[in-house]
Amino acid sequence: MQYTLKTFCIGLATIGHLFAGSVVVAADEGEYQGNAKRGKKLYIENVCHTCHGRDALTPLLPGYPKLAGQDEKYLVRQVIDIRDGKRTNDMTGTMKSFTQGLKDKEIADIAAWIASLSICAKPADNKKDDKGEKNL
Ligand code: HEC
Asked: Of ligand 1's atoms, which has the minimum distance to the CA of residue 82?
């Protein structure tokens, strides 16, 4: 089982690399390719990590979504829809206010970073970020 999951994850990583950099999202100022490096910074600056975890894989509460490795275009669409009030349910309001100041390009940057992350990282590896800070 362990081996199978590992093989699956290696396969996913390979597929991910094949497509990395090929997604262009439509933004308010024309076509734009999200920048993962800027996105990583924006994710922290906009306190996304306080609910979704620094690794985007360790949510604060059960019921909050894991984001790491999700499709880039899908991520952009969801954040824009939440920001613009097009996606609404009893959970959406929790994050809506954190999206209000975000421009489409910034959302694309954040999405590029989240999409680049592995869905296979072990929680134990993600308790601290690369500066040794706690995850949440
Ligand atoms: C206060 C907690 C909180 C903060 C801060 C927060 N979120 Fe969320 N986020 C949630 C919750 C709860 C949901 C589920 C909303 C729903 O069901 O509509 C969600 C949903 C999402 C989704 C949709 C996931 C999916 O699978 O459809 C994305 C993408 C996302 N958040 C990204 C972000 C980003 C980027 C930021 C920072 C700008 C952020 N979130 C800040 C709580 C938060």
From this structure: 18
Residue 42 Cβ contacting ligand 1 at under 6 Å: no
Task: Evaluate: CB of 110 within 6 angstroms of ligand 1.
Answer: yes
- CB-based contact 117:56 (threshold 8 Å): yes
Average pLDDT of the chain, as a whole number: 82
Rounded distance between C-alpha atoms, residue 108 and residue 15, angstroms: 21
The CATH H-level superfamily of 31-118 is Cytochrome c-like domain (1.10.760.10)
**3-class secondary-structure state, position 134:** strand
pLDDT at 57: 94
pLDDT tens string 20-29 = 554 566 655 5
